[in-house]
Amino acid sequence: MTIALVILWHTKLKPFRDYAVVIDAGSSYSKIFVYSWSTDKSGGLGTTSRIKQVKSCSVSHEPITTIVNATQDNVKNYFDSAMTTCISSIPSTRKSRALIFLGATAGLRLLNITDPAYITLLLNSTRTYFSTLKLRFRDPINQVRIISGSEEGLSGWISTNILLKELFNKSKPLDTFGVLDMGGASTQLSFIAPKATKERYRMNLFDRNYDVYSHSYLCYGQDQARLVHQGRLVEQANGSLSIHDPCLQRDYIENKTYNDLFSTACAHGQNESSVYLNTSSIFSFMYDNLNYIR
What we know:
By secondary structure, the protein is an alpha/beta fold. The chain is built from eight helices and twelve strands.
């Protein structure tokens, strides 16, 4: 007589996860985000898997445009430390499937006006660097690009309303929130506007149509607006290098060069008399409490 013992083992395997690396190349600094989601489409329910932020890494306290000579080596030096840290959070078995995207905003949109050749070189060098990372980088032109102001506004509108649970959970367009997003070089305004005649964008989100107005006000970001403001103060200072700035707190001094104030696209046409100033000057801005500057 032969007795066979059969043992059945049943376990639920965890689904694979996919990853994406997203770089926000803003006008003030760059930051890398790693996102992950389940590949099983939410347990077969047919809905979009919940995306989780796995890691974020600040590239630098300076924007990508501080790369003066936009070679591949200089782009690598700018990104590499933070990029290596962030990519290390992706399992080695999933790395080749991980997408990578860089979206540049108003800082590069502005510089593309005054120096398009530099911007072309910077983007191409960034694409070349990304191609060495062994991530999923098959469409370089679309995966590294300058996004439009309207696209930036729409992205902010979607993110805000998902976080406030007005999308997917409720799906009532007129109950959504409008968004005012002030960055370093531009401000975006986005809100539901079914009857808008300009800059109205229809988006289908979770099987629902949303007609969203989105407009970007270039030069009305915090940093650029401040530079224009300071340029006007210089013009009114009658040649003085010590400038009273009522927007500063007491005992704080901020130094700016001529190029800082007058070389950006936002300054062109705003400070016409700047051509008569000494281009080698360094201007000191401070709060003048009556007799502070003497």
